[in-house]
């Protein structure tokens, strides 16, 4: 909506009183105020005292003519130029030229057309105001551009730089002089220049924003390689260029240094494909390598072997010497395996193969491609066994371990990844049953021979019927408020003869036999019932977390079981948290999405448990849309001294918050760990430092004392 202009103040300087009177009258008719000056000296004094919005200045005045007054006004001005209209004695070119040279904005020649004088002054005032606003806007734009860390440029459709402005934080190696007026092929490497020019044409054709990533070597000499070593790769910086059309034949480009983002992505990629403890490939990396080897060997009509290695009695080392020593042992084992299974030492011509991986725990796999004879795989297994038998010196401990190895062959034993890995695993268990420190080839008869844990399986089936299972609850603490916000329900088994059996022993058996589904349903129902009981006793509502196994998650009755448990106990859906592992989510992405949508529709809280130990795809992680992510305790145990784990933990928290997920750190055992996690912005924590798994009556007392801070 248009607004009426403000009244302006005009300084009228003319030695003729009649002329001044007429000028004042014309200005008043268009709503302008005016002050008078009889000569040039008086005009200059009035300008300095009142600072008018416009000066109407006669050229011919005694003492100091209009040209001199105009030049002096321009000299005195500190910032914006006040518009000056010179009144000349005629239309002669010389007077007009002198007026503009003196700094005049416009001129009016005599005889004056009085009816339009006021409108002429108004027009000049408005034009001056517009120029002033443009000047302010330009200053603001320049300030904004100066604050932008990105480099920006203008380029025509032929690929020539029209303008180039490097951002104040940019690490680009190009200067303005190097780019402006040059073709991008003279500035960038040929492949990058060609790709960028293609994108420029696409942007102009579609009028859509496009982007491309590229990398450039840092300026400076290349790192010198030591004698006998391959030359070190040149250090590079990564850039992202975003292009947008600003006309039919011109684009604007913004170039951002994304090297730090690339480093973070590489960290996350390592998290997805590298074992965080040992640094060697993890299960996902091995499965992808195995799948690629299947395709290659099938085309080339080649054979290969899969070795599955498990340390004998590793649990005993963890139980007697502690998990820290156990972790150090796994690192030493992986290093020794790396030395023993170097591609050059194997009967392999595929030097690029990922031969070694850690699947989890103390389980390792070795891929031997291009296998010519079965004896070659047995020889590698023998070398690995002998390497493991040598003592490991860890701090003050001299540790002796042995290894059991199972071997499956392609194509004799199977023609898919799952079969080959499963059969190698089966052969490994056979090697353990044969006295450990053994290597065995898979045979079909092993499937019937291996009846491991049969007695324990029978006992586990009876445990559910005889009420031998019970639940403990471990508190989850909100870092910001130090208050209990939830509990994780943990199932335990009190065997009538053996006493309490570790979950690490009976949970895998329950998974293997399928008993995990009824056990999981029992845990779900009892946890909901207990959480509701605490509420009915007047305790504040808290969330209870229940772990869902892979088999439970795939069970077609899962959704109905959750609905039934909530309905029968009366627990609000938002107070039930269902924890799923990375492996469970990634097993069948399409089915996973369907199940997750059903659970979200109920209103329960969904989280990913033990994050970092599985093989999550970052792409699917965004699509799963879970509420929380639990960092596995293996990343927390070394904090704050373990800088790599600290970097990974910080990256996980940043990634989760970027995906709008809450973060729970498991296994917090020290105050230093808690302080570091708080600095990193972790939302919730749980672990022995904050509370051991406890029976319901202990939890009842903890909730009663909720007003007392938990972290002291």
What fraction strand?
Answer: 15-25%
The radius of gyration is 40 Å
Uncertain residue segments: 1-5, 344-354, 707-712
N-to-C span: 63 Å
Strand order of the largest sheet: 18-19-21-22-23-24-25-26
Q: Specify the helix fraction band.
A: 40-55%
Mean of residue pLDDT?
Answer: 85
Main β-sheet description: 8 strands, mixed, barrel
Shape: elongated
Structural class: alpha/beta
Give me the number of helical elements.
26
Assembly level? single chain
How does this model look, in words?
The chain is α/β, with parallel strands linked by helices. Helix content is 45%, strand content 21%. It is built from 26 helices and 26 strands. α22 links the parallel β23 (605-611) and β24 (628-631). α1 (17-29) packs across α5 (114-147), α11 packs across α12 (374-389) and α17 runs parallel beside α19 (558-569).
């Amino acid at each position: 909506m248009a607004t009426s202009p403000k009244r302006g103040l005009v300084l009228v300087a003319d030695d003729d009183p009649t002329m001044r009177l007429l000028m004042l009258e014309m200005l008043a008719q268009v709503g302008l105020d005016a002050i008078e000056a009889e000569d040039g000296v008086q005009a200059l004094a009035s300008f300095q005292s009142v600072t008018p919005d416009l000066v109407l200045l006669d050229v011919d005045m005694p003492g100091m003519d209009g040209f001199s007054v105009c030049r002096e006004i321009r000299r005195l001005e500190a910032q914006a130029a006040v518009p000056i209209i010179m009144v000349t004695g005629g239309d002669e070119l010389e007077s007009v030229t002198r007026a503009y040279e003196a700094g005049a904005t416009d001129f009016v020649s005599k005889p004056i057309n009085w009816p339009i004088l006021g409108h002429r002054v108004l027009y000049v005032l408005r034009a001056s105001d517009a120029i002033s606003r443009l000047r302010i806007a330009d200053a603001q734009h320049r300030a904004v551009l100066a604050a932008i860390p990105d480099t920006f440029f203008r380029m025509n459709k032929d690929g020539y730089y029209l303008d180039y402005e490097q951002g104040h934080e940019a690490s680009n190696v190009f200067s303005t002089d190097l780019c402006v007026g040059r073709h991008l092929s003279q500035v960038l490497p040929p492949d990058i220049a060609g790709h960028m020019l293609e994108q420029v044409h696409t942007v102009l054709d579609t009028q859509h924003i496009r982007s491309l990533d590229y990398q450039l070597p840092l300026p400076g000499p290349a790192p010198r390689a030591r004698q006998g070593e391959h030359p070190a790769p040149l250090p590079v910086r990564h850039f992202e260029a975003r292009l947008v059309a600003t006309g039919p034949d011109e684009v604007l480009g913004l170039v951002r240094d994304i090297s730090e983002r690339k480093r973070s992505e590489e960290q996350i990629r390592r998290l997805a494909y590298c074992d965080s403890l040992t640094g060697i490939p993890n299960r996902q990396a091995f499965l992808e390598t195995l799948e690629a080897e299947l395709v290659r060997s099938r085309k080339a009509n080649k054979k290969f072997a899969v070795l599955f290695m498990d340390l004998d009695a590793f649990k005993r080392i963890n139980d007697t010497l502690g998990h820290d020593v156990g972790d150090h042992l796994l690192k030493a084992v992986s290093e020794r395996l790396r030395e023993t299974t170097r591609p050059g030492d194997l009967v392999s011509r595929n030097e690029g193969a990922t031969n070694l991986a850690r699947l989890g725990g103390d389980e390792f796999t070795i891929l031997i491609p291009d296998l010519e004879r079965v004896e070659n795989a047995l020889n590698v297994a023998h070398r690995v066994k002998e390497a493991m038998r040598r003592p490991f010196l860890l701090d003050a401990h001299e540790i002796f371990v042995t290894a059991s190895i199972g071997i499956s062959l392609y194509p004799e034993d199977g023609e898919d990844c799952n079969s080959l890995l499963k059969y190698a695993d089966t052969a490994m268990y056979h090697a353990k049953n044969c006295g450990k420190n053994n290597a065995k080839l898979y045979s079909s008869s092993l499937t019937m021979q291996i009846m491991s844990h049969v007695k324990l399986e029978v006992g586990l089936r009876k445990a559910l019927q005889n009420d031998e299972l019970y639940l403990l609850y471990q508190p989850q603490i909100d870092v910001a408020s130090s208050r209990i916000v939830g509990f994780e329900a943990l199932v335990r088994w009190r065997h009538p003869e053996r006493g309490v059996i570790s979950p690490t022993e009976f949970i895998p058996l329950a998974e293997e036999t399928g008993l995990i589904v009824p056990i999981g349903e029992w845990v779900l129902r009892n946890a909901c019932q207990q959480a509701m009981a605490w509420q009915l006793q007047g305790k504040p509502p808290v969330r209870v977390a229940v772990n869902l196994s892979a088999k439970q998650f795939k069970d077609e009755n899962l959704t109905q079981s959750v609905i039934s448990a909530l309905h029968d106990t009366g627990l609000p859906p938002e107070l039930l948290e269902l924890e799923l592992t990375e492996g469970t989510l990634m097993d069948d992405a399409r089915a996973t999405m369907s199940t997750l949508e059903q659970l979200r529709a109920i209103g329960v809280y969904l989280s990913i448990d033990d994050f970092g130990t599985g093989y999550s795809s970052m792409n699917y992680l965004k699509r799963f849309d879970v509420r929380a992510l639990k960092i596995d305790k293996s990343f927390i145990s070394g904090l704050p001294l373990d800088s790599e784990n600290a970097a990974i933990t910080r990256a996980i928290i940043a990634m989760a918050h970027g995906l709008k997920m809450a973060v729970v750190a498991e296994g917090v055992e020290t105050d230093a760990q808690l302080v570091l996690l708080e600095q990193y912005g972790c939302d919730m924590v749980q672990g022995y430092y904050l509370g051991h798994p406890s029976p319901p009556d202990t939890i009842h007392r903890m909730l009663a004392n909720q007003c007392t801070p938990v972290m002291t």
